[in-house]
Specification:
Layout: E1 21-27, H1 34-45, H2 49-62, E2 64-71, H3 72-88, E3 94-99
Helix pairs in contact: 1-2, 1-3
Length: 101
């Protein structure tokens, strides 16, 4: 009689890790017109007039304001495009990104 050894099979579940998120931050300056900042926020971040105005005022009062949180690639792309929109008009408008804790 032949003995067969049966090894138990274990299924390995791969758990995909959620991508790290990054904050897009609006940095206040004294030269870019408020209306232009609101226009950029509405265009690039799809904000309403009221939301964009609140973000702009917060950045104006505190020096910086978190605009939105995205995955790294999206955050960097949006920050670059928004900053470039200001540079195209000759304004020192600046958006940066940093990892979210």
């Amino acid at each position: 009689m032949i003995e067969t050894v049966v090894k138990p099979r274990t299924k390995v579940k791969t758990k995909t890790e959620r991508p790290k998120l990054h904050k897009v931050i609006l940095v206040n300056d004294d030269y870019t017109p408020r209306e232009f900042v609101v226009t950029v926020l509405k265009a690039e971040f799809r904000m309403s007039e009221d939301q964009a105005h609140k973000v702009m005022i917060t950045a104006h009062r505190r020096g910086v304001c978190v605009v939105a949180v995205f995955t790294k690639d999206v955050a960097e792309t949006k920050a670059t495009r928004a900053t470039d929109a200001g540079r195209a008009k000759g304004y020192p408008l600046l958006f940066t990104t940093e990892p979210e804790e």
